[in-house]
Amino acid sequence: MFDYLVNHWLEAFGLVSSIIYLYYSIQENIWCWPWGIVCSFTSVVVFFQNQLYADMGLQWYYVIVSIYGWVHWKRGNKAITVEITNVSTRQIIALIVSCVLVYILILKALLWLPEQLGIRGSEMSYMDAFTTAASIVATWMLARKLIEHWMIWVVINMMSTGMYVYKGMYFYAVLFLIYTIGAIWGWMEWNKNLKKETVVI
Predict the structure, then answer these.
(1) Between the N and C ends of the chain, which has fewer C-beta atoms within 10 Å?
(2) Domain map of the chain by residue range?
């Protein structure tokens, strides 16, 4: 076990920093965003090492959205109220269309780019592309405080847990199992505070 931890210390750090991010996210605390940046940078390296290139690219997106979410929640270093809202019918249609288009683009890139770059291809291109596309949508919904993003995360996290077990990424498999439980918890907490929560800085 000690040898495994030594050889996978970056995964272990990613696990810890991601749990901190999840905790602050559920609490609607603005500190979720800087911790999101930390765990995303860590995961860039971990996913590259495991040939999960869509997940790796997703981490760069997380960095950008974390900066956006940080600014949106904070605005000029002043505590603000960002209300939790439900997704509208128009948003649902736009998000589904966006997710499908992003999925197609990511999948094409995963099937074509590795050979062009002379690197090993992804073993799980279709699932990697799906979880990445859905994660892009769910993260944008989190930044806008749309409560339904938690249910999307339940599906993504369950699929990701299986994917990481298959890849032998056991720290990340545990992390995404925790994420699944956390998403259910987040849904319940946000539902209690719908349109009432004040962001804590």
Answers:
(1) N
(2) 2-192
